[in-house]
From TrEMBL:
Species this chain originates from: Fructobacillus parabroussonetiae
Transmembrane segments: 91-111, 123-147, 159-179, 191-209, 221-239, 251-272
Protein name, entry field: Integral membrane protein
Keyword annotations: Membrane, Transmembrane, Transmembrane helix
Length: 279
């Protein structure tokens, strides 16, 4: 079975769990998938499916998931994941996704306006920082998630703490890209800019297809980047260069960028609403 087939089969079988067992297994699955960045995804999904099948068998015999795997779903998942060896190809993918994914996501909006000098060196340094940070998170996330789940506070407080932690982690990358000055400052005008945007879009497409992240959550980001890319390419076409040099052209470009940002927030709001309705 492929990874997608394993996930689909897992989703089908979960419907047979009792309410108590489903709560236990959902926590078990969430922890396993969140903390298995350095494991082979195929092996992880096979392990999750086998565990689910075992729980269903135990359920038929009157045994709960907690009795079968242990009282704590996070600890049970951690024990099973330790049996899987580190998958170095997954580690290499993690580095690729973080570094080039950041460049794709951050760099296209930065060069969407023609004539703007962009510090490529600063963006590469920011990507390097995020790559190192991702490595540290990958090695420590199992203990962090376990301890975070143990904190007895309201869900909204956990959401606030998670948001603050995310901002603290990501802020240095934005600080580096905005304030660091390097010698690698380039202007991506004309066909050079178009070729650069197209190349980054290709990298982003590869990232979107293979990255182990939520397609639903990432959709607003991809829409916004694609919108920015279309503007960046269109504004660099020969018949548009003269118009972009005028005040009216610059005003129109600013309005389009603002419209793109508005669309991004609207799509984000719809996604959040859909996720809340699903929950």
């Amino acid at each position: 079975m492929t990874i997608n087939e394993l996930i689909e089969r897992n989703n089908e079988l979960r419907a047979g769990l009792s309410e108590k067992n489903q709560k236990f297994y959902d926590d078990f699955l969430l922890y396993a998938r969140t903390t298995s960045w350095l494991k082979d995804e195929q092996a992880v999904e096979e392990l999750l499916l086998k565990s689910l099948q075992d729980i269903l068998k135990a359920q038929k015999n009157g045994q709960s998931a907690a009795d079968y795997l242990g009282k704590n779903p996070q600890a049970a998942a951690a024990v099973l994941l330790k049996k899987l060896p580190i998958h170095w190809e997954s580690f290499a993918k993690l580095l690729f996704y973080v570094f080039f994914g950041y460049l794709a996501i951050a760099f296209i909006p930065a060069i969407s306006v023609p004539g703007k000098v962009v510090d490529l060196g600063a963006y590469m340094m920011a990507g390097l920082y995020l790559t190192v940070a991702a490595c540290i998170v990958a090695w420590t996330i199992d203990a962090a998630v376990y301890r975070f789940q143990k904190i007895r506070v309201a869900n909204w407080a956990k959401l606030v703490l998670s948001t603050i932690a995310g901002i603290i982690l990501v802020f240095p990358a934005f600080a580096i890209s905005f304030w660091l000055k390097t010698a690698l400052r380039l202007s991506f005008d004309g066909w050079v800019g178009i070729a650069t945007i197209v190349l980054i879009l290709i990298v982003l497409a590869i990232y979107q297809k293979n990255a182990r992240t939520s397609e639903v959550i990432n959709r607003p980001i991809y829409y916004y980047i694609l919108f920015q890319a279309v503007i960046g390419i269109g504004s660099r076409l020969p018949f548009m260069e003269g118009m972009m040099a005028t005040k009216l052209g610059k005003l129109g470009l600013a309005i389009l960028l603002g419209f793109g940002l508005l669309i991004f927030w609207l799509v984000s709001w719809r996604v959040i609403k859909k996720l809340n309705d699903h929950d």
